[in-house]
Amino acid sequence: MRNKTKETNTYVVFEGNSMKTVIDGGEEDVYLKMYPTATNITSPSQSQEWSGSGFALKDGYIVTNYHVIDGAKSIQIQGVKGDFTIKYNAEVIATDKFNDIALLKVSDSRFTGFGTIPYNVKTTVSDVGEDIFVLGYPLTSTMGDEIKLTTGVISSKTGFQGDVSLYQIS
Q1: Scanning 3, 25, 88, 97, which has the fewest C-beta atoms within 10 Å of its C-beta?
Q2: DSSP 3-state assignment of 26?
Q3: 3-state SS track over 89-127
Q4: CA separation (Å) from 46 to 42, 49, 142?
Q5: Contact, 155 vs 169, CB < 8 A?
Q6: Predicted TM-score (pTM) of this structure
Q7: How far is CA 122 from the centre of its chain?
Q8: 3-state SS, residue 60
Q9: Phi first, then psi: what are they for 165, rounded to 5°?
Q10: pLDDT in tens, the chain (170 residues)
Q11: 142-151: Cβ within 8 A, 24+ apart
């Protein structure tokens, strides 16, 4: 339940684009699916554009998720030094589908560098209970170009079914 308690007399009903939870005693909550809509879906032969987040490394390299670039015919990056008006061409250098990671490199002659990168990449394992935060630009077509933040705590050093390549976070 929303308050993290367990309720045994609850059921869920799916109707079209909505989901309704009903708790014994009559309390109901209705959730409406807003995205994607049927009009967002195009056939594979049509040109599609989508976005994802990544982070800069030195020398024009960028790390993103494999699912962000999977099937892409071309890749452009934007937001360098906070400027979303300029798009730079990039190319895939390496991918790891299993770990959902891709390494890109900016391949645009106009690119002059990222400037000072205000973070380092941690190379050690994090501990359970360690505070974490994630910054990104998810679904920019619907959520806008403003950076989004989520915070949490490492709750396990392994992910689904003990996968050591993933953490669980609260």
Answers
A1: 3
A2: coil
A3: EEEEEEEECCCCEEEEEECCCCCCCCCCCCCCCCCCCCC
A4: 6, 10, 20
A5: yes
A6: 0.63
A7: 19
A8: helix
A9: -85, 0
A10: 556 666 677 777 777 667 777 777 677 777 766 555 545 445 555 567 777 888 899 999 999 999 999 999 999 999 898 888 999 999 999 999 988 899 999 999 999 999 998 888 888 888 999 999 888 877 777 888 788 899 999 999 988 888 888 888 88
A11: 142/35, 145/79, 145/84
Q: Which two tokens stand for residue 157?
A: 């050093």
CA distance 97 to 133: 24
Single-letter amino acid, residue 79: G
Q: Give yes or no for a contact between 150 and 133, defined as CB atoms under 8 angstroms apart.
A: yes
* Rounded Cα distance, 147 and 118, in Å: 15
- Which residues have CB under 8 Å from 74's CB, separation 6+? 89
Q: How far apart are CA 47 and CA 75, in angstroms?
A: 13
Q: Which amino acid is at 164?
A: V
| Residue (of 155, 163, 142) closest to 51 by Cα position | 142
